[in-house]
Every structure is written in structure tokens, then in C-alpha cells.
């Protein structure tokens, strides 16, 4: 069915220098929130509201940095300090330098882990919200072979105390991150980043651009949550991924509590040693989520284990995660006149909103403060919109949190990459699309899946958009069908304003009134 749419720890002090020495790099336009940026407390909010633990610590702040030849080893001399998580090209980083495809960007900071009775039953995770584009992590002078990542828009994490690393983390530790970023000289997803900004094409965003943090994960950990509401059945499915390092059989209890405010609204339990537990939880007369009434239910997920490999571990090895969800349904349905329309919670809804590109004059991809993120969404709603299309960019998780909390529908793009297919701005189309290299297509598929996985639980996201205006458009039918099958809880727009194929839920046309320049 298709529709035409037009329109806790001790951490070392900040490495080197003091916060007072930081200042925005000039010359750049600063937003009103720039004055609130504090190098000693940069973006301090927990970065992942839908999967929250108490035992965590931000690594945001001043790091040493160096820009070297791509083939160079770990720097012996550092160029200065950068305010993480602002990209080095941004004003708020305090650097304001670009990183070429022939160069490498290096980061360094030091930290100290607290060691006590409780942490003996925990492992240590190092999290990155996003790093553009390819990175390698070093710890205490050694490259961690499993700590590599490619992809500029999806979160990732590593165990820094994994037995295979054989690292001694007692005392002060040195963390180094090496980054490579080809921007528009590679096939990678990059959105509107180009080496030579002009017109609608903007500054590169290289390296760390979202929060970096460490958390202690209990041995019997909750390692993942997938939350899928069902309006028609008045229920929610919660899939709990349970991890455990030991190979010994261990039985643990999974308990899920749905909260309405402070009150327990519903509960469910399951038992597992490791793997995924799926719980379907009935909800009596649930309050539905919508832009007008964005009601959110709290979620508390506990995993309890008493004995591991014959040792009584009790509460120290058990885990509790807090999260939230909204009960909503997005679908293409016929109205009372038999016309296909977008429906929210089984009622037709006219979606009206801007193309939200998510760029900041001072922070580029990164908002100066959490209040700035919130303001953007509040202003969007105040102007009369009920949705926004997030254009060829993926935001930090807290942006989607504010959309969930304030009630803004989101059409989520995949950031574009590679080169563009032929495209007619007035709608001509002869089924032409790119033939990407196997490496390029494999990378696209990997990053697209990672983005969908990371954002799945947000009720605000109602549509996936794999391509924009033929930018990097390839394998359209296969990509769209895969997306529809992988996440049937949302609609899919195969190519917003691009070369449309008979697949997906909507036909999305972009019209640019002449005369053209």
C-alpha cells in the first residue's frame, strides 16, 4: 500500500592544562548556549536514557590531540588540547582545524579506575557515542585489537578489561584513540560533509563528536533491550539480552517492571543463563503516545544471580537497567473514503514538519548543551509542526529522548555516501541507480543496520528513509525490502525525493520552484 506525500569511579584530572585555558576557536558564529559550555563539566547528562546504569563516568572534557601523517605512529609530541566531544573542526572544540584524508587524528587522556569489593564482580566498558569515521583504541601503550570501529553514526563499546587484553588497569591509565576520516573522498556515509564546503555542503566533522564514557557492568549483565509496543493487543514486547563471561551453567532471574510515574503498572519475569529472554507484557487500558500527548512509561529491568562458578556473588554481580517506552502504532491505512493515509494509533494524522539538518554554527554536529537540543525540539513544536525529517544525519540519543518526551514524530534518514546517481529535480526517472562496489555496499548495509538497532526503541521514530534524492542510491528495492522486514513496526520511504521504485510505503516528491540558479 503506497501513498503520495508531498512535502562508580575515580577519574584522573583533565589531562594537562586547566579548564580556564579553553576558549572557542575563532572566527565562528556562536550560539547563545556557547557561554554555558564548561570544559570541566561538558555535556554531563547520561548519554543513553533508554539504557541507563548508575555506575558510570563521563570522559568528556579536555583531551590532548595531534594531527599527523596517516602513516605515522603514536605521537611523541601533542599539538594541544581539544574539548571532547566537539569535532576538531568546530569552534567549541577550541581547535578549529581540518583533518585531510592523508592525515590521522589522535586523542589522549588519562583516567584512574576505582577498585573495591563491588567492582570485583564487574567488567569495565568504554563507550563512544559516535566517532567519524574509522578508529583504533590504545590502552596503556598497546593497541587493543578488538577495539576497532568503522562508522560515523552508530554507538559502540569495548571491554577494556577483557582477559585477552592482559592489561593491568591498576593506578593511572592512558587512553589513546586514532581516527581516520576520508570525508567525501571515500564511499563512507557522510551526509553533507565535504572537504571544500560550499552552498548546501558543509564542514567535515572528524573524530569524536558524541559523549565518551566508562561504566561498570556486572558479571551477570543486562546487555541489551529491544522494546516493541503493540497498540492493537494493548501490550509491549521486551526482549532482554543477557550476557555472562563464564561458560559454566548459571540460572538467573529476569524481572521487568513497567512504571507509570512512580507506580508499578505491570510486571513480567523469565529465567535464563545467557541469551535473549522475550517477554510479552499485557497493559490494561494503556495511555497511547502521540505528539499531543507524548505519554511515556518507565521500564526497570533487573537480572539477579546468586552463584557464579560455585562462588556466592549476590547483589554485586546482579544488574538493573532503567529505560522507558511509548505505546504507539504507525501504519498506512484507508480512511472512511477509502483513501490511503498515514495513521497514528489507528487515526489519520497529517504529518507536517521541517527538514532538520542538525548542524550548529559553533559545535557543527554536536549541540553546545543538552538545553540547546531541547530548545530546538520545543521551538519546532511551537511553530506548529508535529514532525521533523532528520536529514542525512543521526543525532545523539538525547535528541531522540527529547522527541520522545516532548512529542515530535521523526522520519530518520540514512546519512548519504559514495557518489550520486542521475536525478531529475522535477521527477523524471528511468530506473537509473548506482552500482556501488561490494565494499561500499557492504559498509552501507552494516551501518544502516547498526543505526536501526541503536534507535529501535524510540517511539518518536515512525519512518526510515534509506536514501535522499539519489545521493548514493543503490540496490533500492533490496535495501527497502530488507528494512521493511527487519523493522515491521515502522514505515519505510525508499528514497525521499529521489528515484522512486515500486517498493516501500510512500512516494515522496521534492519540488524546487524555479527559476533554478
Shape type: globular
Main beta sheet, described?
Answer: 6 strands, antiparallel
Q: According to CATH, what is the topology of the largest domain?
A: Jelly Rolls
Mean pLDDT: 90
Query: Percent of residues in helical segments?
Result: 10-25%
Which homologous superfamily in CATH is the superfamily of the largest domain?
Answer: Galactose-binding domain-like
What would you note in describing this structure?
- With 517 residues, the protein is mainly β.
- It has 3 domains: 8-217, Sandwich (Jelly Rolls); 221-325, Immunoglobulins (Immunoglobulin-like); 330-509, TIM Barrel.
- Helices cover 10% and strands 35% of the residues.
- The chain has a 6-stranded antiparallel beta sheet with strand order 4-3-5-11-8-9, with no helix packed on it. A 5-stranded parallel beta sheet has the order 26-27-28-29-31, with helices on one face.
- Strand 23 and strand 24 (340-344) form a beta hairpin.
- It is globular, with a radius of gyration of 23 Å.
- The two termini are 37 Å apart.
Amino acid at each position: 500500500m503506497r501513498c503520495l506525500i508531498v512535502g562508580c569511579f575515580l577519574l584522573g584530572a583533565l589531562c594537562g592544562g586547566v579548564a580556564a585555558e579553553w576558549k572557542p576557536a575563532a572566527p565562528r558564529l556562536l550560539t547563545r548556549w556557547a557561554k554555558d559550555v564548561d570544559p570541566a563539566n561538558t555535556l554531563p547528562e547520561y548519554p543513553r536514557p533508554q539504557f541507563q546504569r548508575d555506575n558510570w563516568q563521563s570522559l568528556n572534557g579536555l583531551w590532548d590531540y595531534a594531527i599527523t601523517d596517516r602513516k605515522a605512529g603514536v605521537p611523541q609530541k601533542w599539538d594541544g588540547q581539544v574539548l571532547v566531544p566537539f569535532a576538531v573542526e568546530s569552534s567549541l572544540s577550541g581547535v578549529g582545524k581540518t583533518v585531510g584524508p592523508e592525515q590521522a587524528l589522535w586523542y589522549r587522556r588519562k583516567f584512574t579506575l576505582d577498585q573495591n569489593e563491588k567492582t570485583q564482580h564487574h567488567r569495565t566498558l568504554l563507550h563512544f557515542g559516535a566517532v567519524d569515521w574509522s578508529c583504533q583504541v590504545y590502552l596503556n601503550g598497546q593497541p587493543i585489537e578488538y577495539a576497532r570501529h568503522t562508522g560515523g553514526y552508530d554507538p559502540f563499546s569495548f571491554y577494556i578489561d577483557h582477559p585477552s587484553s592482559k592489561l593491568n588497569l591498576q593506578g593511572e591509565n592512558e587512553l589513546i584513540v586514532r581516527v581516520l576520516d576520508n570525508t567525501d573522498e571515500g564511499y563512507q556515509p557522510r551526509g553533507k560533509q565535504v572537504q571544500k564546503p560550499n552552498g548546501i555542503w558543509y564542514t567535515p566533522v572528524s573524530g569524536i563528536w558524541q559523549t565518551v564514557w566508562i561504566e561498570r557492568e556486572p558479571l551477570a549483565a543486562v546487555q541489551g533491550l529491544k522494546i516493541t509496543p503493540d497498540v492493537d493487543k494493548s501490550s509491549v514486547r521486551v526482549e532482554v539480552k543477557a550476557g555472562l563471561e563464564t561458560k559454566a551453567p548459571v540460572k538467573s532471574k529476569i524481572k521487568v517492571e513497567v512504571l507509570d510515574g512512580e507506580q508499578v503498572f505491570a510486571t513480567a519475569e523469565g529465567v535464563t543463563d545467557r541469551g535473549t529472554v522475550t517477554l510479552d507484557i499485557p497493559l490494561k487500558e494503556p495511555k497511547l503516545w502521540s505528539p499531543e500527548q507524548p505519554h511515556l512509561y518507565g521500564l526497570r529491568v533487573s537480572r539477579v544471580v546468586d552463584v557464579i562458578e560455585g562462588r556466592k556473588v549476590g547483589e554485586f554481580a546482579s544488574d538493573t537497567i532503567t529505560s522507558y517506552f511509548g505505546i504507539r502504532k504507525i501504519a498506512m491505512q484507508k480512511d472512511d473514503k477509502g483513501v490511503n493515509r498515514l495513521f497514528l494509533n489507528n487515526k489519520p494524522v497529517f504529518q507536517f514538519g521541517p527538514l532538520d539538518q542538525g548542524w550548529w554554527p559553533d559545535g557543527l554536529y554536536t549541540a553546545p548543551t543538552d538545553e540547546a537540543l531541547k530548545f530546538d525540539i520545543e521551538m519546532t513544536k511551537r511553530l506548529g509542526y508535529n514532525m521533523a525529517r532528520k536529514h542525512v544525519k543521526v543525532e545523539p540519543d538525547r535528541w531522540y529522548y527529547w522527541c520522545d518526551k516532548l512529542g515530535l514524530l521523526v522520519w530518520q534518514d540514512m546519512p548519504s555516501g559514495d557518489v550520486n546517481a542521475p536525478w531529475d529535480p522535477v521527477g523524471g526517472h528511468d530506473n537509473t541507480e548506482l552500482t556501488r562496489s561490494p565494499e561500499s555496499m557492504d559498509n552501507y548495509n552494516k551501518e544502516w543496520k547498526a543505526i536501526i538497532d541503536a534507535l529501535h526503541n524510540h517511539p518518536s521514530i515512525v519512518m526510515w528513509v534509506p536514501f535522499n534524492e539519489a545521493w548514493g542510491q543503490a540496490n533500492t528495492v533490496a535495501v527497502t525490502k530488507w528494512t521493511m522486514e527487519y523493522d515491521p513496526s515502522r514505515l519505510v520511504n525508499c528514497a525521499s525525493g529521489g528515484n522512486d521504485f515500486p517498493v516501500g510505503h510512500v512516494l515522496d516528491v521534492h519540488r524546487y520552484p524555479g527559476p533554478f540558479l
